[in-house]
Task: inverse folding
């Protein structure tokens, strides 16, 4: 919202508030006064009308009661009751006719017995002037003969204090109509309404003179029992009126005076229109004055705003003209100073950005800065080469859409929203040229609290495709060399065995030990070649296991018994503590045996003479644990973390005590990993070592999950080799 409309609203509020408050107070006071005056006038008129109608009713009712108590009427009625003949009825009719003649307001009289039968009438004997009445009361009805509204007053005639007959007198309603139609003080729309309890008007209405005794005026709520002085509601014309009503004590009637609210509040409406005109004039004046002053005030502010917008868009050469020496002039000077500082700061930031870009582009790793939604914000030159995409296209891409990662030939999902540095190794993806690439991915968070759209993490991708290919070449070379060495080594072994067999008794006594030593070294070299082949198969993924239900206890017992002779040669005590059978796991029989034999062989190899080796088998939670504890030379603490690495050998006494290749523990750990097992070591140099491996207890579900499916793959030949399934893939 601009400042000018705000000023207009402010000045309107300041200028109009007093006028509105005064106008509302005056309007409310005058409305209340006028309403009270109108109600008082209506109430006074209603009381006067009520008194006049009540007096008329009482006068007429007293006249009928007086007639019913006349001596001649009662004496003649007594004679009729004693002898109900025509003469007595004619006498009664004569009395009724005489009374009608005396009272000009009485139109007719009728006498009925207690059963409702007509005895006599002023109109003639047994001529009914109205349906017989047996109850005393006052009613207004239309005469069915002439259609005029008439007043009916009924009272009883008693003889010897017992009701003997009923007199009904019919009066004209001219005097009542005169009272009702007296509109003195009621104005043009004022009206007096008399109604019975059923809501029907009893006398002619001002605005509906032909509707007497038929118009329903229930909407006026004339019989309201609530203690209210007046009511505002809709009358029978559906006009809004002010009503004051009173109940009559002499009859079940109510008298109401009313006037239209439009006439009652006519002067208030004039006042309201005058106030509206004043408010309109004030608003116009305020708007004109406000526009003049706001233009004078806001013009320099608008200039400052436009200059600020240009500076915000990067136009730091913008200058605000300073023509005033007030607060606005000071603000203009401040904006000019800010523009100069921003220009210097932006130049410094741009210089730093260029230096940062040079540093990023000089690195060989692909570097991506991503936001909290995984969108790329910044990418260096190595990243564009890695993705074969231009920088302007790369920025804004999602890391999840850009790279489809795999690990060990399986789909792999990288979590870019991390709370600490996370490293992913051996990831694979196929680039746009169809080349399979191997990378190491590092995700480093920038901060836990970042704004939406700002940098959330730095992703570094190190392309290891070349080193991976070199490693594959090394593995292929080792595999090829091992295969090539196996053939001549087999021939050498054969020749040595033949020489030993044929010349064991004839050869010189110094020759045989050399031949046997040569055969022993051939066996060592053969074990080295087999280990090298196992390692290459592990790394190439061409080794499969035949998983089945295996008795771990029986396998350990067999391995311990097989090495008893070797332990006895070194005067070692080799002992097994544990169950002899019944400890089942899911494993490859020969591969598991190779792990056990490897650990026992190492224990025998690195334990001094007269030492002790104890093998135990226990159950812990859902796994079986096999521990090989020796009293050997121990392992230095610095070497424990590297012990299961490929080709790792301990420096010092442990390394010089044997001619190991550093592959046995690596192979054992690889086998256990394929079995969902673990291996750990505890050792103290000079005291001994304990190697412990654990395998899950057998379940049918575990067997189904670990059962190999490779034998169903087309183009794969499987053969047994030292407890392993070697997968030869045909291409």
Result:
């Amino acid at each position: 919202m601009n400042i000018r409309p705000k000023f207009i609203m402010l000045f309107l509020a300041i200028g109009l508030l007093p006028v509105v408050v005064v106008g509302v107070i005056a309007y409310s006071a005058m409305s209340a006064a006028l309403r009270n005056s109108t109600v008082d006038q209506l109430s006074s008129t209603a009381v006067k009308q009520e008194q006049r109608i009540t007096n008329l009713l009482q006068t007429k009712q007293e006249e009928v009661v007086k007639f019913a108590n006349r001596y001649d009427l009662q004496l003649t009625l007594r004679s009729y009751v004693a002898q109900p003949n025509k003469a007595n009825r004619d006498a009664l009719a004569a009395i009724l006719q005489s009374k009608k003649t005396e009272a000009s307001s009485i139109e007719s009289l009728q006498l009925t017995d207690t059963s409702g039968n007509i005895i006599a009438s002023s109109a003639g004997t047994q001529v009914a002037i109205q349906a017989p009445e047996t109850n005393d009361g006052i009613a207004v009805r239309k005469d069915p003969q002439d259609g005029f509204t008439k007043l009916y007053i009924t009272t009883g005639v008693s003889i010897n204090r017992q009701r003997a007959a009923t007199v009904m007198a019919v009066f004209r309603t001219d005097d009542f109509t005169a009272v009702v139609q007296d509109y003195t003080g009621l104005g043009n729309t004022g009206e007096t309404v008399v109604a019975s309890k059923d809501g029907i008007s009893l006398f002619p209405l001002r605005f509906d003179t032909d509707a007497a005794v038929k118009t329903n005026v229930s909407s006026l709520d004339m019989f309201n029992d609530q203690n209210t002085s007046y009511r505002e509601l809709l009358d029978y014309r559906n006009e809004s009126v002010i009503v004051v009503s009173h109940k009559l004590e002499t009859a079940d009637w109510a008298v109401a005076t009313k006037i239209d609210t439009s006439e009652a509040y006519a002067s208030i409406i004039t006042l309201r229109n005058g106030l509206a005109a004043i408010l309109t004039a004030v608003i116009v004046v305020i708007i004109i004055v406000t526009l003049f002053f706001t233009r004078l005030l806001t013009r320099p502010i608008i200039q400052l705003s436009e200059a600020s917008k240009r500076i915000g868009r990067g136009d730091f050469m913008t200058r605000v003209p300073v023509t005033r020496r007030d607060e606005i002039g000071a603000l203009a000077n401040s904006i000019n100073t800010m523009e100069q500082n921003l220009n210097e700061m932006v130049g410094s930031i741009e210089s730093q950005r260029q230096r940062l870009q040079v540093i990023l582009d000089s690195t060989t790793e692909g570097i991506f800065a991503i936001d909290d939604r995984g969108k790329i914000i910044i990418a260096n030159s190595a990243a564009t080469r890695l993705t074969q995409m231009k920088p302007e296209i790369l920025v804004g891409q999602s890391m999840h859409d850009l790279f489809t990662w795999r690990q060990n030939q399986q789909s792999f999902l990288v979590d870019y929203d991390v709370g600490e540095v996370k490293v992913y190794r051996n990831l694979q993806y196929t680039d746009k040229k169809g080349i399979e690439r191997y990378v190491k991915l590092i995700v480093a968070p920038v901060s836990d609290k970042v704004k939406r759209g700002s940098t959330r993490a730095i992703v570094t991708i190190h392309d290891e495709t070349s080193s991976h290919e070199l490693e594959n070449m090394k593995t292929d070379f080792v595999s090829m060399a091992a295969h090539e060495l196996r053939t001549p080594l087999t021939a050498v072994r054969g020749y040595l065995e033949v020489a030993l067999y044929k010349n064991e008794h004839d050869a010189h006594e110094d020759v045989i030990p050399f031949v046997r030593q040569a055969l022993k070294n051939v066996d060592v070299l053969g074990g080295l070649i087999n280990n090298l082949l196992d390692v290459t198969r592990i790394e190439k993924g061409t080794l499969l296991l035949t998983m089945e239900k295996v008795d771990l206890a029986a396998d350990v017992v067999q391995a311990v018994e097989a090495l008893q002779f070797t332990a006895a040669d070194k005067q070692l005590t080799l002992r097994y503590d544990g169950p002899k059978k019944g400890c089942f796991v899911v494993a490859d029989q020969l591969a598991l045996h190779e792990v056990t034999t490897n650990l026992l062989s190492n224990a025998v190899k690195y334990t001094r003479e007269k030492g002790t080796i104890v093998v135990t088998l226990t159950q812990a939670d859902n796994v079986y644990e096999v521990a090989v504890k020796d009293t050997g030379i121990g392992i230095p603490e610095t070497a424990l973390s590297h012990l299961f690495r490929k080709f790792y050998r301990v420096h010092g006494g442990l390394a010089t005590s044997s001619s190991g290749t550093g592959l046995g523990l690596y192979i054992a750990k690889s086998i256990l990993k394929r079995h969902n097992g673990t291996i750990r070591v505890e050792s103290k140099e000079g005291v001994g070592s304990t190697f412990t491996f654990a395998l899950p207890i057998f379940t049918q579900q575990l067997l189904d999950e670990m059962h190999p499916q490779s034998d169903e793959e087309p183009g794969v030949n499987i053969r047994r080799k030292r407890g392993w399934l070697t997968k030869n893939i045909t291409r």
Residues 54 and 250 are 7 Å apart (CA to CA). Confidence is low (pLDDT under 50) at residues 652-658, 709-731. The radius of gyration is 62 Å.
